[in-house]
Amino acid sequence: MRRRARRTEDRSRGDGGFGSTGPPQVRWTAVLTKDRPETLCTVSMVGATPSEIHLRGLLDTGADVSILSLAAWPPQWPLTLAKTSISGLGGTKQCYVSQNPVAITNPEGQAAIIWPHVAEIPQNLWGRDVLAAWGVQLGTDF
To answer: Cβ(27)–Cβ(117) under 8 Å?
Structure first.
């Protein structure tokens, strides 16, 4: 009698996050220190007043999406209530998302077009959405 190993089926992950968590989630879990890498970026929105602002933020590989501080967000730039909230240290915070796309340009001139999340957080976070568009690679064998 010969035993055969079972074959796994090809399964599509779909639009969900890792595992079975459902839609992508934003979780605030980082401890902010002066040792974390940060950069000053230009954030611009076509047709808006002001058309651009300059924001310093942390390069956060643990954040799926970029999250900007509500205090730094120009009140004239339209926001809508996000379908997700930020949970982690200090409880859960209401989250908004820009109604219009914005360009996030780093000091090297690389731009990422995103619809950033905006919340009452103490520090702007440049997440993996922006880092990937900039071509940032993480590793130990460079």
So the answer is: no
